[in-house]
Design goal:
Distance between the termini: 46 Å
Number of strands: 0
Largest sheet: none
Strand content: under 5%
Number of domains: 1
Number of helices: 5
Structural class: mainly alpha
Radius of gyration: 18 Å
Length: 115
């Protein structure tokens, strides 16, 4: 994927120009950072509410996907940005998490202890 991203960046630079391509990469990074912050806050709230509800593992997986999306969106490239934007989209991400949880089908239990 990095080679394909690099190839597309080079092609975009030759078609659009250096500064236009740089602006496009920076704009997608800023939009991605904003979406990651919003969705990360949403998942954190869900995780805080679900500590007693038994949904911890599902929300932890969703949080891990958000972190992965952040890495993809911060990486310069159009393919990684597209994949990051798709995964940060809440309905798609929740469906992906539900499929992963059904595929694994384990009863992982987390215990929360306070000191």
């Amino acid at each position: 994927m990095p080679f394909a991203d690099l190839y597309l960046l080079i092609e975009a630079t030759s078609a659009l120009g250096f500064f236009e391509t740089l602006a496009l990469v920076l704009i997608t990074g800023l939009i991605g950072a904003t979406l990651i912050r919003k969705e990360g806050h949403h998942v954190l709230l869900k995780l805080q509410r679900s500590v007693t509800g038994g949904e911890v593992s599902r929300n932890v997986l969703e949080g891990a996907i958000i972190v992965f999306c952040g890495l993809l969106l911060l990486t310069p490239g159009f393919i990684s940005d597209l994949l990051g934007f798709l995964l940060v989209f809440r309905p798609l991400r929740e469906r992906l998490v539900a499929r992963a949880m059904n595929a694994v089908n384990t009863d992982v239990q987390f215990t929360v202890r306070s000191f």
